[in-house]
Amino acid sequence: MAQRDVRTAESVWDYPRPPVVVPDDRLVEVSFAGRVIASSRRALRVLETSHPPVFYLPPADVATELLRPVDGSTFCEWKGRAQYWDVEVDGRFSVRAAWSYPHPAPGYRELRGHLAFYPSRMERCTVAGEVVRPQEGGFYGGWITEEITGPFKGLPPTAGW
Question: CATH homologous superfamily for 24-147?
Answer without folding.
Answer: Domain of unknown function (DUF427) (2.170.150.40)
